[in-house]
Amino acid sequence: MNITVRQIEFRSTNGTDTIFGWIYIPAGPVRAAVQISHGMVEHMGRYHEFMRWLAQQGYAACASLISRRWNNNVLPKTYK
C-alpha cells in the first residue's frame, strides 16, 4: 500500500518551543489514528519503521516532540 510521509513543525502556544514531528498517512481510507509518545531516553527516530508499517495497514501514525533545539540526529540516515 502506498503511503504519504510528512514532516510537521509549528510553534507551541508559549511562543518559545517548537512542536516537530512526522505523520504517516495511508493511501486509502484511514482506519484509526495512532499517536506515538516516546520515552525520556528515546527519540521518535526509533519509530519510523513501525509508523510505516501502521500506515501500510491503514492507520495514520504520528510521532512528535517539543524542542527548543531540535537537531537532525534523531533521524535514521534513510530519512535525512
Count of helical stretches: 1
Indicate the overall shape.
globular
Structural class: mainly beta
- Low-confidence runs of at least 5 consecutive residues: 70-80
The mean pLDDT is 80
Strand content: 35-45%
Number of strands: 4
- The ordered H/E elements are EEEHE
The residue fraction in helices comes out at: 10-25%
Determine the N-to-C terminus distance: 23 Å
Spatial order of strands in the largest sheet: 1-2-4-3
Strand-helix topology:
Layout: E1 3-11, E2 18-26, E3 32-36, H1 48-56, E4 59-67
Q: Which terms would index this structure?
A:
80 residues, mainly beta, four-stranded mixed sheet, 40% strand
Please explain how this structure is put together:
It is a single chain. The chain has 80 residues and is mainly beta. 11% of the residues lie in helices and 40% in strands. The chain has 1 helix and 4 strands, in the order E-E-E-H-E. The protein has one helix at 48-56, and strands spanning 3-11, 18-26, 32-36, 59-67. Strands 1-2-4-3 form a 4-stranded mixed sheet. The chain is globular.
In summary, what is this structure?
The chain is built from one helix and four strands, in the order E-E-E-H-E. It is mainly beta and 80 residues long.
